[in-house]
Structures are given as structure tokens and as C-alpha cells.
């Protein structure tokens, strides 16, 4: 974050604007709304600024800039069309540790004037750090259409009754619930219809009713593979409802940044070398402990909690302890990584079925997967890429068919044995594969090739977890259909050139 966003109180404080043209006029108009004491300095002034001077709204210095103009000022805006003059003003302001904005010149500025969505007292500021003001303006335009003008009246009404709300709802959760109802209920609806007296009456009536303690709950949320744009609307809503967030190791920082700022965030990710069963027991304990205290707990898991994510085990524990819960599905890695690598998991000509497989097993090789794990599968979202105790068969007893797509979770640490077993079970050596590292994230790398070459190519490119492996004819379409991230190799398979 290049700039630290803040809102400055300027009422009855002295501000200097250097410049007398149209650009300076726009800045002065915005400053006057804050009740700042504005001094304008320039050799010549346009008619509007002259008019403001006549009305006593601004003080004018009609001259060439000198550093003594900065005496007693809190803020400075340079709006001349001469960069030499602007540089002189900026240097003088910086030497006095005054914040200065040089219009359309971020290099000389110590702060930027953002695009504003004004729903006073609600103010929304949009900044591109001075790099793309047109982009900031376009985003402001979109926000203008989304935010009803009645929000300002709602904020004013909430401020008027703030002390009463705090007194009647001393518990933070109850107070937050009251504000949620204020925003979503009949009070806001009355304000949208310009019935202010009715809105205030509804607020006081609702506030007089005793608050009802709501039981805590757990929301099991799939965060997807990493791209925050793949979060569902329900997942985003849950993140902003949470009191406590228990998140796994591969949940991206960008997704956590979308959560409510005052929510407690607790990392519960499993790491190589740790006792994963002990970590899982801690997760169970934390969910029940916080929910029993009346809090909303978001159990945030990468991908989807019900695909190699131990989501079922966690819900069983909640049921056993009488804790309410909800489930918000996420986009599992196989779907997202395949899409971002240009690999359709099914295709009328090449793949009529697909299989999601975890390459992690703990026991002997010949059993079906669920038996080899005593009925459980590891959490691909927290153990992704951790090598198992022994290499073992990645597939169940069901035979592999030529027109089937195989998607392997957690297989990057054992590609050699995995390749050998696939060849032994009848796959051709030239079967296409796609190995996707950091799928959907900015650092996505995709390696395409033929199955026989998989271990050697992955080693050459130092492919690391988290990675997802797709094997099957459809992987040959990847080099042709790819659209995201870095491609490491592009083999000319029959499918890719068809």
C-alpha cells in the first residue's frame, strides 16, 4: 500500500491553494465544503475565485509564490500549470513537513486528493495513488450508482441516537446486530422514501425492545484456491459477519483482507512435521469454544471443505457438541486450476468422466483409498504437497479408462511413483498431463507434457506445492486454450494442434 488513507478534519484550519485557474477552483470548492479557511495565491484569478473573494469565502494573495505563504498552514495544494513553480512550492512545503498535493504530479506530492462519493456524513474516497486518476474516477462512478443517497440521512440518524444505542445495547454483538437491522430493515426503507420522521420513530421503537441473545454458530466456508475473485457472495458475507476466523495455511492474504477488520483471525493450518491430528483436535476445540461463547465462527478452508478438506469430520464434531452451523461451498482446486490452465475436465470428444483423487495415503498400496486411510482422507487445503509416510497407490480399485480425466491433489511430492503406477495401470506413456502450481494466483505456473516425461520435467522446473496434476486427453488442450499465468513448456501434441 503506497499511501496511508486518512480523512482530515480541516474546519477552521488554514489551507493554502496556489493557482488561480479552473483546476485550483475545483480544489477550492471541495475544501470550502470542509469549512477550511482557504487562502488562494496566484498572479491572476478566474471570475469564480474572484466571486468567492467578494463573498468573503477565501483570502486572496495576488502575487508570485513565496515560502512565507506557508506560515501557519496545515495543508498545501499546488495547482499551477508551471512545474518549476510547483517544484518550488513542493520543496518549501516538504522542508516545513507540510502535507502537499501537486495536482497531477504524484512525484512531487506527499498526499493525493481522492475521487469522492459524498453521502455526508458518509464519505467514500477512491485513490489510484496518483497513478491512474481516470480509473479512480470510473470506480467512483460505479459506486455512485450502487449507493443510495439516503445513506447520508441514515448515518446522521445513527449518529443522533448513538449514545442511546450504546446504552441500550452494551454488548458489542447485540449492538452490531442492531446496526445490521438498521441498514437492512424498515428504518432504511423509510429513509429511501424520504419519510424521515417515520424512520426515527421506527428506530426508537426497535431500540426500546429488549435485545435477544443469539446463540453462537460456525460457518464452514470454502475459500477457493486463492484468487479472491472466486469467493462466493455468501462467503464474502460470512467473512464480514465473523467474530472469529479460523483459517488454513493456504488461504491467501488477499482473501483474509476482505474479512471484517475487528474479527479475531487465528491460523490453524497444518504444516509439515507437525502432529496433524493434534492440530485437528485444536481446530475442533476452538470452534466449539468460541461458538459456545455466542460468537460467529468462520472456519475458512482453502478450496471446498467437502473435497479432501475434513469438512465432514468437523461438522460431526459440531453436531456432537450441539453447535449450530452453516456450510458455504467453495470452488475446489481441480475445477479452478483446470479452468485457469485452459483444461476442460470433460469434453465430448476426449473425456466423458472425471475422477478427483488424493495422492496422499498412509497405508499399503493395494487398498482402495478410503480403506487405506481408515475411512478418512487428508485435508488438501492444509497438507497440500506434504509427502506421505510411504508412496502408495493413488487410485481406487476401479480401472482407469482412456476417456477419463484424473485430477490429483497433493501429488507434487511423489510424481515419480505416481507416474509409475499410472503406467502400470494401463495409461499410455504419451498421455497428456498439466501440472499447475499456485493455480489461480498471480504466481501461477503451468507445465504441460506427456506422462512419461512428468517427473523429469517437474524436477527441471522445480515445481512446488501447492500444485494440482491433471492427467488425461483433455490436458492436451491446455497449450491451445491457456489464458492465465506463466506457461513453462508447450508440447505439440495431437490434441493441441488439432
- Estimated helix fraction: 25-40%
Q: Average pLDDT value? A: 88
Number of helices: 19
Distance between the termini: 46 Å
Low-pLDDT segments, ≥5 res: 361-394
Number of DSSP-assigned strands: 18
The shape is: globular
Structural class: alpha/beta
Biggest sheet: strands side by side, in what order?
Answer: 13-14-17-15-16-18
Rg, nearest Å: 30 Å
Strand content: 15-25%
Q: Would you summarize the structure shown here?
A:
By secondary structure, this protein is α/β, with parallel strands linked by helices.
Written overview of the protein:
The chain is α/β, with parallel strands linked by helices. It has 19 helices and 18 strands. The protein has a 6-stranded mixed beta sheet, sandwiched between helices. Strands 3-2-1-4-5 form a 5-stranded parallel beta sheet, with helices on both faces. Strands 10-9-11-8-12 form a 5-stranded parallel beta sheet, sandwiched between helices. Helix 5 crosses helix 8, helix 7 runs parallel beside helix 8 and helix 8 runs antiparallel to helix 9. It is globular.
Amino acid at each position: 500500500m503506497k499511501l496511508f488513507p486518512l480523512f482530515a478534519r480541516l474546519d477552521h484550519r488554514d489551507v493554502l491553494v496556489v493557482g488561480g485557474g479552473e483546476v485550483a477552483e475545483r480544489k477550492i470548492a471541495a475544501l470550502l465544503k470542509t469549512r477550511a479557511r482557504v487562502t488562494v495565491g496566484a498572479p491572476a484569478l478566474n471570475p469564480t475565485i474572484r466571486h468567492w473573494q467578494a463573498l468573503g469565502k477565501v483570502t486572496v494573495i495576488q502575487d508570485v509564490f513565496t515560502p512565507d505563504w506557508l506560515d501557519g498552514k496545515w495543508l498545501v495544494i499546488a495547482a499551477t500549470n508551471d512545474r518549476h513553480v510547483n517544484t518550488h512550492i513542493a520543496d518549501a512545503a516538504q522542508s516545513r513537513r507540510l502535507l502537499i498535493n501537486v495536482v497531477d504530479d504524484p512525484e512531487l506530492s506527499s498526499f493525493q486528493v481522492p475521487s469522492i462519493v459524498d453521502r455526508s456524513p458518509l464519505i467514500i474516497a477512491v485513490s489510484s495513488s496518483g497513478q491512474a486518476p481516470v480509473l479512480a474516477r470510473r470506480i467512483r462512478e460505479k459506486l455512485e450508482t450502487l449507493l443510495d443517497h439516503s445513506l447520508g440521512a441514515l448515518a446522521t440518524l445513527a449518529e443522533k441516537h448513538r449514545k442511546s444505542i450504546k446504552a441500550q445495547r452494551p454488548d458489542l454483538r447485540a449492538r452490531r446486530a442492531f446496526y445490521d437491522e438498521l441498514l437492512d430493515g424498515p428504518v432504511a426503507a423509510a429513509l429511501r422514501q424520504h419519510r424521515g420522521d417515520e424512520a426515527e420513530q421506527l428506530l426508537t421503537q426497535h431500540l426500546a425492545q429488549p435485545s435477544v441473545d443469539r446463540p453462537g454458530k460456525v460457518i464452514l466456508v470454502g475459500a477457493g484456491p486463492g484468487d479472491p475473485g472466486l469467493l462466493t457472495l455468501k462467503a464474502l458475507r460470512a467473512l464480514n459477519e465473523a467474530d472469529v476466523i479460523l483459517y488454513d495455511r493456504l488461504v491467501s492474504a488477499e482473501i483474509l483482507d476482505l474479512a471484517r477488520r475487528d474479527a479475531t483471525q487465528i491460523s490453524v493450518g497444518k504444516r509439515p512435521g507437525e502432529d496433524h491430528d493434534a492440530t485437528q483436535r485444536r481446530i475442533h476445540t476452538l470452534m466449539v469454544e468460541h461458538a459456545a461463547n455466542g460468537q460467529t465462527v468462520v472456519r475458512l478452508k482453502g478450496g471446498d471443505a467437502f473435497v479432501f478438506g475434513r469438512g465432514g469430520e468437523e461438522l460431526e464434531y459440531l453436531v456432537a457438541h450441539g453447535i449450530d452451523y452453516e456450510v458455504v461451498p467453495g470452488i475446489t482446486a481441480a475445477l479452478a486450476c483446470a479452468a485457469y490452465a485452459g483444461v476442460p475436465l470433460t469434453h465430448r470428444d476426449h473425456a466423458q468422466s472425471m475422477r478427483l483423487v488424493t495422492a496422499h495415503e498412509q497405508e499399503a498400496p493395494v487398498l482402495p483409498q478410503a480403506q487405506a486411510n481408515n475411512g478418512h482422507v487428508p485435508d488438501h487445503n492444509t497438507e497440500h504437497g506434504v509427502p506421505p509416510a510411504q508412496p502408495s497407490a493413488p487410485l481406487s480399485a476401479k480401472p482407469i479408462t482412456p476417456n477419463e480425466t484424473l485430477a490429483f491433489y497433493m501429488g507434487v511430492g511423489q510424481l515419480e511413483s505416481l507416474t509409475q503406477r499410472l503406467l502400470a495401470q494401463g495409461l499410455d506413456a504419451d498421455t497428456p498431463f498439466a501440472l499447475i502450481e499456485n493455480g489461480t494466483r498471480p504466481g501461477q505456473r503451468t507445465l504441460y507434457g506427456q506422462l512419461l516425461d512428468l517427473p523429469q520435467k517437474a524436477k527441471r522446473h522445480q515445481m512446488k506445492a501447492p500444485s494440482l496434476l491433471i492427467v488425461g486427453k483433455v490436458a492436451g488442450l491446455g497449450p491451445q486454450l491457456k489464458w492465465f499465468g506463466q506457461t513453462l513448456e508447450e508440447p505439440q501434441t495431437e490434441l493441441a494442434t488439432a
